[in-house]
Amino acid sequence: MTFRSAAAAALVASVVPLVMVATAPTALACSCAIVGGPAQIDSATVVFSGRALSHDEGAGAVVSSADPVPWTFAVDRVYRGTAAARQVVVTARSSASCGAELLDGREYLVFGSGDPVSTTLCGGTQELAGVPADVTAALGPGTAIEPPEPPPAPSEPPVWPAFVAGVVVVGALVGLLVRRRRAS
Questions:
Q1: Residues 2-29: b if buried by 16+ CB within 10 A, e if exposed
Q2: Residues of the chain by 3-state class (helix, strand, coil), percent to 5
Q3: Are 112 and 71 in contact (CB under 8 A)?
Q4: Residues 9-49: pLDDT tens digits?
Q5: Within 73-159, where are the H helices?
Q6: Which residues make Cβ contacts (< 8 Å) with residue 145, sequence separation at least 6?
Q7: Do 113 and 45 contact (CB within 8 A), yes or no?
Q8: Closest Cα partner for 48 from 23, 25, 71, 81?
Q9: Nearest to 61 by CA among 93, 29, 90
Q10: What is the pLDDT of residues 155-178, one digit of tens each?
């Protein structure tokens, strides 16, 4: 190999990766700036504490880490805005797409916004046990939410209409039998 061909090969070997990097599409991932609790409180339209009851991953295969996943919370205290006793909050499926990292059955302090209420990894939603004292102090006491009343138990239909219908049928049968006996 001559010096010229070796130099050309070296030039190509160094330029090709640079061209590939320079022309590659932008990679998107979640990157959060570290923001303190008071700033997160200010940016949220609703802040509440509650237990993550369930979530719906949807049917079928995972299409994207950004797919919305609705989580249902049993809310026990509201610090900002309004929340229902059973509040649905939407977040992306994965933390790679800034989805909040949630687990069924755990207690959370949820920072949300929008309609429907949504939250993100960067929004401040976190396990209740790990909430810093400055955030707790900034939130204040909040308002307790009473759990929703269970739906009324289905009532039993009254027995007397069935009893009356039974008496009428039995009476008609007895009357029919008496009539046939007299006729014979």
A1: eeeeeeeeeeeeeeeeeeeeeeeeeeee
A2: 35, 25, 40
A3: no
A4: 554 455 444 444 344 444 456 777 766 677 788 889 999 99
A5: 133-139
A6: 48, 75, 76, 77, 78, 83, 85
A7: yes
A8: 81
A9: 93
A10: 776 666 666 777 788 877 887 777
